[in-house]
Specification:
Blueprint lengths: L1 H23 L24 H17 L6 H14 L3 H14 L4 H16 L3 H13 L8 H14 L3 H11 L6 H17 L3 H13 L4 H14 L3 H13 L7 H14 L3 H14 L4 H17 L3 H12 L9 H30 L4 H14 L44 H15 L17 H7 L5 H6 L16 H7 L6 H25 L3 H14 L6 H14 L3 H14 L4 H7 L1 H29 L3 H14 L6 H13 L4 H14 L6 H22 L2 H11 L17 E8 L4 H15 L6 E7 L3 E9 L2 H13 L13 E6 H10 L2 H12 L1
Antiparallel strand pairs: 1-3, 1-4, 2-3
Helix pairs in contact: 1-2, 1-3, 2-3, 3-4, 3-5, 4-5, 5-6, 5-7, 6-7, 7-8, 8-9, 9-10, 9-11, 10-11, 11-12, 11-13, 12-13, 13-14, 14-15, 15-16, 16-17, 17-23, 23-24, 24-25, 25-26, 27-28, 28-29, 28-30, 29-30, 30-31, 31-32
């Protein structure tokens, strides 16, 4: 009674409080499928640590003081849950395994089995999870009342592995058996999300509507209403509903999401203009929700990209990139597209800038000076002093590439060139303005002849309609040999980049050629926009028919027209490459592309392998073991001579070791050393193994009870202190030995070994024999190994067998393999400690 209604009751109530708080305070990311279970994460675990420690303390007190109580198993189970929520998964696994093994037929034993699966799932050990789920599903003794929880865990696993159809099937099956209304509503919302992701909009709408009708917490209800709008077929009713949500004062902090949903509705209707307006309202309204801001910017970028208006797309991708986090589903693809567009815009700017500079280099000096003076005045600092870090003017000869401001609809309605990017229109406009108004400074009230004068304007008006010309008139001369001399220091900043001399013009033209080629290449290979690539390469050949990139342009046009099934133009460019450049690599690519491709791939293999390893190393630093394993497998399949194979495997072992037990980590490192003894990295791994073995030994001693420490001393000590000279023997029969203290249950150990051998090594017909070493120790020999390889494999397999030793409850045990020659020396001197050291140094 005391155990149940004092310690256990209070611990259970405290655990219920924690679980209720976790459910109520869970902050979900609704832009992806929300979590099936509301558990702690690395950020929130500290919030609940004190309460969870209290659960462990209260439960431990019951176990300590009431060892015979039937509520002991419940207390152990509560301790396991508390350790799980603390994210101390190794300890939780040990606790749940104990409950499952101690009470295999009790409902708590089966429930512990499911919590074990959840422990592995939270550690992303997905292969282990799959096998454990399969075992539980096929277990005929698994109670029906626990199947609901098991299927929820399986649904969680299916979502994590993107098996959404299986997740739907599982959740729909368990929904009628869920008793808690809040959890049932959560699962309905997840079902709606899954159906929406699978394109089953009618089913998604059904579940979203069910969520709304149940009046859950406001946040979940609001999200259901938004997503119901996305999947509903009645768009008019949807828009009315969303606009109504906008007017609700409770939704002030949700306006960005409402506008975003309205934009998606308009996109479904094909109305890109209005969608862009809503997306801009969304980003303007988003103050704290960076995830939503990133999505809105990215969606707007996607619209411009699809038109395509690449400069605008690039601008909005850059904006999205400021708020996008690495856990975004398509983050790598997003960054790749952002990089391609950045490269495109850089080359477009080079093209337009150099074109503009070439044009204005031919202007009459008077016109050019007037333009420069106007630019000087426009770039004055607030105090009236001219800004000195100015850029050369690019108007009216040209402008930077067409980059519409956010919110402009340029490119949506027509393909006409904007006035502000039309050189002829700008030149005509500038001339007409000057004739009518004179050289007016760019300022407020520029039309007024007389207006209140600030200090800045007073200084500015000293160089009025022709002020800049008068001030510098004595420093300006006409051009001599195309070079401007005696210009003022301020004007020099504008003149320095204008190509007046033939050599400067040649440099500008080379930059234009390179930019045109790069633009065509990016359009073709980076963006798949064949039409724009064709235009760029054709312009390159038209402007520079015998230029630096002549053969490359003809070859790329041959490929573009071939892809477009334009045989006439394809043949035209192919014949030019073959006739004018017969020895070029491009001619070989046309005549025998496969041979050249193989040569190219062969020459690139080392570089590609290095790049693959760099990618793997990035995944290693990010602790993404699943991606790292894929990198390792891909490298092994792609590269016949994978000289980095050992390094790939080492990275994966270390990555997996962070989540695995220390013992398994050491075993895997030792296996690595045996597999790759001569690699450059092997000495480093060997040192690592020695350090970890020392750590293992310290941990064993630190965690031993007094009886265990005594047992260890009993097993390892007791020899005659003679230094025995053991010999490393190969191709000689070996034995496997386990030594335990006297008083151990030798018959149980014998039976366990016999059962293990019959199950795994029946064909080898192994024999088991027991002996005594003095009065304090006993040993079991497993014999009939023809050499050290067979015996060592048995040693490793048994060490890796789950729970083999733990089930026997031995106070201490020491196991090793030994040759027949060394065995006689070992028994003569009772030298357990000396031989164990020899064994570790020579066999492991």
């Amino acid at each position: 009674m005391n155990a149940r209604f004092n310690g256990y009751f209070n611990a259970k109530e405290k655990m219920l409080d924690v679980e209720n708080m976790l459910f109520d305070q869970k902050v979900d990311n609704y832009n992806k499928i929300i979590d099936v279970f509301t558990v702690t994460d690395d950020k929130t675990k500290e919030t609940y640590k004190k309460d969870l420690e209290a659960v462990i303390t209260k439960s431990s007190t019951v176990i300590t003081k009431h060892g015979t109580s039937k509520w002991i198993k419940n207390c152990y189970f509560l301790i396991g849950k508390a350790e799980f929520y603390k994210r101390d998964f190794y300890t939780a696994i040990e606790t749940f395994e104990y409950v499952n093994e101690k009470y295999p037929d009790d409902p708590l034993g089966h429930e512990s089995r499911v919590w074990l699966i959840q422990c592995y799932l939270e550690q992303d050990k997905l292969n282990d999870v799959l096998s454990m789920i399969s075992a539980a599903d096929s277990d005929k003794n698994f109670p029906a009342e626990q199947k609901t929880y098991l299927h929820l865990v399986e649904a969680d696993y299916s979502i994590r592995t993107a098996n959404y159809k299986k997740a739907v099937k599982l959740l729909e099956a368990v929904l009628p058996d869920v008793k808690d209304r809040g959890h049932e509503t959560r699962y309905m919302f997840i079902l709606a999300q899954l159906h929406q992701m699978l394109g089953n909009n009618d089913e998604a709408a059904k579940y979203y509507a069910m969520v709304v009708k149940r009046h859950p917490v406001y946040d979940l209800s609001f999200q259901a209403k938004l997503r119901l709008a996305e999947v509903s077929t009645d768009k008019e009713a949807v828009e009315k509903s969303l606009l109504k949500l906008l007017k609700d004062e409770r939704n002030v902090d949700y306006k960005d999401q409402i506008y975003y949903t309205l934009a998606k509705v308009e996109l479904q209707k094909g109305n890109k203009n209005l969608a862009i307006e809503y997306l801009q309202l969304s980003t303007a309204a988003s103050k704290k929700n960076n995830i939503q801001k990133a999505l809105s910017f990215k969606t707007e970028a996607d619209i411009y990209f699809s038109i395509p208006v690449y400069p605008s797309a690039k601008m909005f991708y850059d904006s999205a990139g400021k708020f996008m986090t690495k856990d975004y589903t398509d983050y790598d693809a997003f960054k790749a597209r952002q990089a391609v567009l950045s490269d495109l815009i850089s080359n477009l700017i080079v093209l337009h800038t150099q074109d503009s500079l070439l044009k204005i280099s031919n202007y009459d000096t008077t016109v050019l000076n007037a333009l420069i003076d106007k630019e000087i005045l426009a770039n004055r600092a607030p105090g009236g002093n001219p800004i000195t870090n100015v850029q050369p003017p690019i108007l009216p000869g040209g402008a930077e590439p067409n980059v519409p401001t956010p919110g402009s609809n340029e490119g949506l309605n027509n393909g006409k060139e904007s006035y502000f990017y039309n050189s002829a229109a700008l030149t005509q406009g500038f001339t007409e303005f000057t004739n009518k108004w004179g050289n007016r400074p760019l300022a407020d009230d520029w039309r007024r002849k007389s207006k209140p004068q600030t200090n800045e304007e007073t200084q500015t008006n000293t160089s009025d309609t022709s002020g800049a010309n008068k001030q510098n008139a004595n420093q300006i001369s006409t051009t001599v040999g195309g070079m401007v001399k005696n210009v003022s220091a301020l004007r020099k900043k504008y003149y320095k980049d204008i190509p007046f001399s033939p050599s400067q013009k040649n440099i500008a033209n080379n930059k234009i050629q390179e930019a045109l080629y790069n633009i065509g290449d990016i359009y073709y290979n980076g963006l798949g926009d064949y039409k724009k690539a064709e235009e760029s390469f054709e312009e390159l050949l038209q402007r520079y028919p015998k230029g630096t990139y002549e053969v490359q342009a003809h070859y790329n046009l041959y490929r573009i027209y071939k892809d477009d099934s334009n045989k006439v133009k394809s043949d035209y460019h192919k014949n030019i490459v073959l006739s004018d450049f017969p020895g070029s690599v491009y001619a070989q690519l046309i005549v025998n592309p496969e041979q050249l491709r193989q040569q190219y791939l062969k020459s690139r293999k080392n570089e590609e392998l290095e790049n693959a390893y760099n990618t793997a190393y990035q995944h290693f630093n990010a602790n993404d073991c699943e991606a790292l394993r894929n990198d390792m497998q891909n490298a092994n399949s792609r590269f016949a001579k994978n000289y980095l194979k050992a390094k790939f495997e080492y990275l994966y072992i270390v990555c997996a070791g962070k989540k695995d037990s220390l013992d398994n980590f050491v075993v895997n490192l030792k296996a690595f050393l045996k597999k790759y003894p001569g690699e450059d990295i092997s000495p480093q791994v060997s040192d690592q193994v020695k350090y970890l073995e020392g750590l293992q030994e310290k941990r064993k001693i630190a965690t031993m009870s007094k009886d265990s420490a005594k047992a260890r001393a009993m097993v390892l000590g007791g020899g005659d202190n003679t230094k025995v000279d053991y010999q490393k023997t190969e191709n000689q029969p070996h034995q496997f030995i386990i030594i335990v203290p006297s008083g151990s249950n030798l018959e149980a150990l014998k039976k366990a070994l016999a059962d293990y051998d019959n199950e795994n090594y029946q064909s080898q017909q192994l024999s088991i024999q027991s002996l005594s070493i003095g009065t304090d120790r006993m040993l079991l020999l497993v014999k009939n190994y023809k050499d050290e390889k067979q015996a060592l494999q048995y040693y490793k397999d048994l060490e890796a067998a789950p729970n083999f030793y733990s089930k026997l409850a031995l106070k201490y045990h020491q196991e090793f393999i030994i040759s027949d020659t060394n065995f006689s020396l070992f028994m003569k001197h009772n030298d357990v400690e000396g031989y164990v050291k020899f064994f570790k140094e020579n066999y492991l």
